[in-house]
Design a protein that fits this description.
The chain is of the alpha/beta class and about 325 residues long. It folds into three domains: about 120 residues, no CATH class; about 130 residues, Rossmann fold; about 50 residues. It is built from eleven helices and 16 strands. Strands 1-4-3-2-7-5-6 form a seven-stranded mixed sheet, with helices on both faces. α3 links the parallel β5 and β6. α4 packs parallel to α8 and α5 crosses α6. The chain starts with a strand and ends with a helix.
Length: about 325
């Protein structure tokens, strides 16, 4: 849904805020327009994972299309170039490979090309311990622009951990059990322990004695990192980095919305087709409902509803 009428630097400021909050989003930029479209070249907007729209790229026809496509781009993690235009014109044009065309039959006409790119939030990693391996891993993750917090065991608290946290315990036998016991109840998305398998068994036995469930214990990656064979102490940081990058690429660290928001998403308004212009709209009161012969129809603009009201059967027959 449309959230705020912000433009220019306001959009970029919102992008910074979302990045700092660890939220992924889509940045949309109008790279070409054909009048009389209300969108302007260079106009930008942000679409969040929840479908919130910040900024301005066009009118009532362009916005729902952008939100729909932006959600898909964020899901796939791949940028797209969208070409929104009149169906007849798009049919007659040579469209370059890789450009996604979206027919629109809005009364305002015009056309837009919008570059839609996903901005994935940087993962947050807490490294517990200050061994040479931990310091090396901190440097490697920082070089990738990940958010990293390197702390001593004495500084580590449960308030530093939530379900989106990545925690690497690198105390090297000096408090492994204590660090894991602090982090595990918060169900971090990744909890790895730098330890030999023999040392790891001792940690797991301690956790079982502390009444942690088998399911909780099974979430611990021990030893942390990919198996790269025999490595030096500092080289172990490379194996952990490789594992974290691999998991991120697989989507394991995508931020989950709070439980209440998940529940709300389950009852999101149904999306229907405006039979006059062919646009996708939400079945909500704001989209001008009109009931005909027991069925309620929704429209993107007053003109579409007015056209439908005059001869509803003509549009219904076309749809059929």
């Amino acid at each position: 849904m449309f959230n705020q009428a912000i433009e220019g630097t306001g959009v970029m400021q919102r992008a910074v805020e979302l990045t700092q909050q660890g939220e992924s989003f889509v940045l949309a930029t109008v790279v070409w327009r054909q009048g009389p479209s209300s969108g302007q070249s260079g106009s930008r907007a942000i679409v969040t994972a929840d479908g919130e729209l910040y900024g301005w790229i066009g009118g009532a026809c362009a916005e729902p299309v952008l939100i729909r496509e932006a959600k898909q781009v964020l899901l796939e993690g791949k940028a797209k170039l969208l070409w929104l235009g009149q169906e007849a014109e798009l049919r007659d044009l040579h469209v370059p490979e890789g450009v996604y065309t979206v027919p629109m039959n809005c009364q305002s006409e015009g056309a837009l090309q919008i570059y839609v790119e996903p901005i994935q939030s940087a993962p947050h990693v807490t490294i517990v311990g200050r061994s040479p391996m931990a310091i090396t891993l901190n440097s490697l993750l920082s070089a990738l622009d990940w958010h990293v917090n390197l702390v001593d065991l004495s500084e580590f608290t449960s308030e530093m951990v939530d379900s989106t946290s990545i925690v690497v315990v690198a105390t090297q036998g000096h408090g492994d059990e204590d660090a894991v016991e602090i982090a595990l109840p918060k169900n971090p998305v990744y909890l790895g322990v730098v330890a030999s398998r023999k040392r790891g068994e001792a940690v797991l036995a301690y956790l079982r004695d502390r009444s942690f469930s088998s399911d909780q214990i099974a979430t611990i990656k021990l030893p942390a990192g990919l198996d790269l064979g025999h490595t030096s102490h500092r080289e172990m940081s490379v194996s952990i980095l490789a594992e974290l990058v691999q998991l991120r690429a697989a989507g394991a660290f995508k931020k989950q919305a709070p439980q209440m928001r998940k529940t709300l998403n389950m009852i999101e308004p149904e999306e229907v087709i405006d039979l006059v212009c062919g646009m996708t709209v939400q079945a909500v009161p704001a989209n001008r409902p009109f009931t005909f012969e027991g069925t309620t129809y929704y429209f993107c603009a007053p003109g579409c509803r007015a056209s439908f009201e005059k001869v509803p059967t003509s549009f219904i027959k076309q749809e059929a």
